[in-house]
User: Fold this.
Amino acid sequence: GDSVTQMEGPVTLSEEAFLTINCTYTATGYPSLFWYVQYPGEGLQLLLKATKADDKGSNKGFEATYRKETTSFHLEKGSVQVSDSAVYFCALSGSGGTASKLTFGTGTRLQVTL
Amino acid sequence: DAGVTQSPTHLIKTRGQQVTLRCSPKSGHDTVSWYQQALGQGPQFIFQYYEEEERQRGNFPDRFSGHQFPNYSSELNVNALLLGDSALYLCASSLLGVPNQPQHFGDGTRLSIL
Assistant:
């Protein structure tokens, strides 16, 4: 079945450092890929998405590129801020379209310090 | 434009009891999915409703059941509660049949089983 593997956290960075959170996936067909962010005590917010190979999703300085050849969707940001501290989830939805069920990774906690 | 709303925000039950959680989808959405997020884990798909029918189901026992109403709102019912059912229950809504539309999440219901 479908699965998502994320790098384990927590990831601790100083403000303005470069961020990479690795994500790889296993899926049949052509899934859509997502990054969601969860702040303490809240639900999930969509951060960015990509729906086909070589697409780059971007939002709020975060970027991720859909790499079918390496089955990866790594999240990057050039300069993190304290306000980026949260848990980040990589997810995919199957070839039934973006309304299909989401399969999530276990999440990566990011802590940014001054 | 109201997003996805869930009620209640917190709930405490004892083993063996039954619980009903409620979700109102984002305006314009017709599909509701439910997820269970255990502490420190990624969300796990429970089931999805569209046109008042269960469209997809994850690997959850029959103790977990749901319903969707004509106004697209939804309920999640869990019978014979176990300690392991303690989790954050997330509802997500989307629009079926429209390409590349992501799922939007509510803030969840925190269920604690004593």
